[in-house]
Amino acid sequence: MSPTGKHSGRSSEPEMRASHADRDRVVELLRVxxxxxxxxxxxxxxxxxxxxxxxxxxxxxGLTADLPALSVSAGGVVAEVKDVLRIDQRWSPxxxxxxxxxPRRMELFVEWCEVTLDFTQAVITHDTLQxxxxxxxxxxxxxxxxxxVVDADALALEFSRVRNHRxxxxxxxxxxxxxxxGRKRHGRVVVRQSRRTAGxxxxxxxxxxxxx
Length: 212
Prior knowledge:
Layout: H1 20-35, H2 41-53, H3 57-63, E1 84-90, E2 94-96, E3 101-102, E4 105-111, E5 115-118, E6 123-124, E7 128-136, E8 139-144, E9 148-151, E10 155-164, E11 176-193, H4 195-204
Helix pairs in contact: 1-2, 1-3
């Protein structure tokens, strides 16, 4: 059985050695399943780790045996993961949060409405997200987590500014690079970490001793 759960000739032999592409396909399937609520966060972490260390096709197939089969294109991209997500909106706020699946590219055409993209629990299936932005007014807020960095160097600003409050650790591995291109007029782009994450970190900090 192939990593996608379908028979495919010689490659369906369970003892066949798995390729990097086989492992990548299974990781994508697992992340989409987690985005659908079929796997918990812990289950996703465990299965992704097992997929990356799997040696055979049979080992990979076992990781998706209890999940519905998902169609895969010739290039190995899961069909449920959109290549391009287009949002065209005025006045009403736009929010993507929780376990949403991050596409390869987003097109944001918005006027005078707040836009919030929260990546702290997002299902990340690619290492780069390009956001083509044409936004006037209000604030674009990007809430990042460990391994998520934002590059706004190619963004044209007109009466706007970028405030990046999330400086990544130089030794931190990058899991997602968000590239902002296009233009932002009249407003702000704010990059910050989750306030809940910051709050948990502050609660863990030891209190200073009297006179210390």
